[in-house]
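[job 0417] fold request received: VOC family protein
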Amino acid sequence: MPDNASEFISVRYLVDDVDKAIEFYTEHLGFTVRTDFAPAFADVTRDGLRLLLSGPTSSAARPMPDGAIPGPGGWNRITLVVDDLAAEVDRLRAEGVEFRNDVVSGPGGRQVLVRDPSGNVVELFEAR
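[job 0417] inference complete; emitting structure tokens
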């Protein structure tokens, strides 16, 4: 497991509430807290992925020169590979996690989308 930030692949998600995001990613998706500077920022890790959770008071949420304000949500997403998608779906539904869709199958496998508390999408993928 990587030790310093340069050894991780890092993805930033803007979130409405850093504490709720930490809880979601650690309790439901198996991440570990690396740093916690809530309410502004935290980062959590899983299998070489460093997920940067940036709250409304973080530097990442500052308005752009044109006045646009960065916010959570959208369709870009991280993908977490799972061995048994059906079991993961059952577990997460029992835990009250919000799903964006039902399981869909494609040429490479099956996937489903869940939402974190801020509406960011996480894909769970089981290879064929």
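[job 0417] notes: The first strand starts at residue 9 and ends at 14. The mean pLDDT is 94.
[job 0417] exit 0
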